Amino acid sequence: MQQKLVQISQDVQGLTQKVNVMTIKTSEDMVMAAEVSKQITVRKKRIEELRLFFTKPLNDHIKSINTQFKSASEPLNQLGASVDGKISEYRTKEAARIERECRAEEERQRKEHEKQMEKERKEAEKEAEKQRKALEKEELSKKEQKAELKRIEDERLAREAEIARERESFVPEVEIKQETKVESESGTLRFRKHWTFEIIKESEVPREFLAVDETAIRKAVNAGAREIKGVRIFEEEIKSNY
Questions:
Q1: Closest Cα to residue 102, out of 166, 167, 178?
Q2: Is CB count within 10 Å lower at the N or C end of the chain?
Q3: What is the mean pLDDT of residues 16-31?
């Protein structure tokens, strides 16, 4: 093989010298250039044949080895897929159960918080009523009594407004999470979530996520299409050596 590569390198050097000094100004020059082009094509074909001569037996042997080992591992692939399916099914059910527990815990905390807020509202009302009754026993002018009653009512309303804000801003704290790893005797199985997708209705996918089908365009052009919106169809020359 090394000997062949040396011969190829020497041959390429000779052709390189021809191409470097080549100029095409006449039809005779064009004939000479066509001959050189043909020689290059022939040599490329010969080099490819030599490459296959050396590599095909090796590739065939590697292919045979790969086929045998793939065949041997296929039952394990099927078993692995089966186990993965069962694991996925269990974890899906477990995730749904945990989700239900989380929602139930959140609802329990909301009800508890609501109960506490209502208790505090009633206490604020009782406190206001207590202050109003105490005010009746004091010897105050009507103006002073009116001012005190307004103060008591303003404090009660302010407390109710504060309780209402606490109700609206309350966020349950739930720490029930699905396990992310399972440890066995021979190792650890880890899990992580990630976002993925599936196309449900292709016609509704935004244009920015669509790709031009160049294969279909090429097929249409080869069939005779000469006008396609957004596409420039033009003719180019292809050189062939025979």
A1: 178
A2: C
A3: 94
Residue 228 lies in a domain: no
pLDDT at position 53 is 95
Q: Is 47 exposed, middle or buried (0-12, 13-18, 19+ CB in 10 A)?
A: middle
Written as six digits, the tokens of 235 are 């003719």
List, for residues 42-89, the tens digit of each pLDDT value.
999 999 999 999 999 999 999 999 999 999 999 999 999 999 999 999
For tokens 């699905």, what's the residue? 178
Residue 27 within any structural domain of the chain: yes
pLDDT score of 5: 92
Helix-strand-coil split of the chain, %, nearest 5: 70, 5, 25
Q: Are 216 and 228 in contact (CB under 8 A)?
A: no
112-118, long-range: CB within 8 Å, 24+ apart, which pairs? 113/166, 113/167, 113/170, 114/167, 117/163, 117/166, 117/167
Total domains, the chain: 1
Residue 132's domain comprises 2-222
Evaluate whether residue 242 is within a structural domain. no
Take residue 34 and report the two structure tokens written for it. Answer: 């066509």
State the DSSP code for 169: H
Residue with tokens 């209402």: 164
Structural contact between residues 205 and 199, judged by C-beta atoms closer than 8 angstroms: yes
Start-to-end CA distance of the chain, whole Å, equals 28
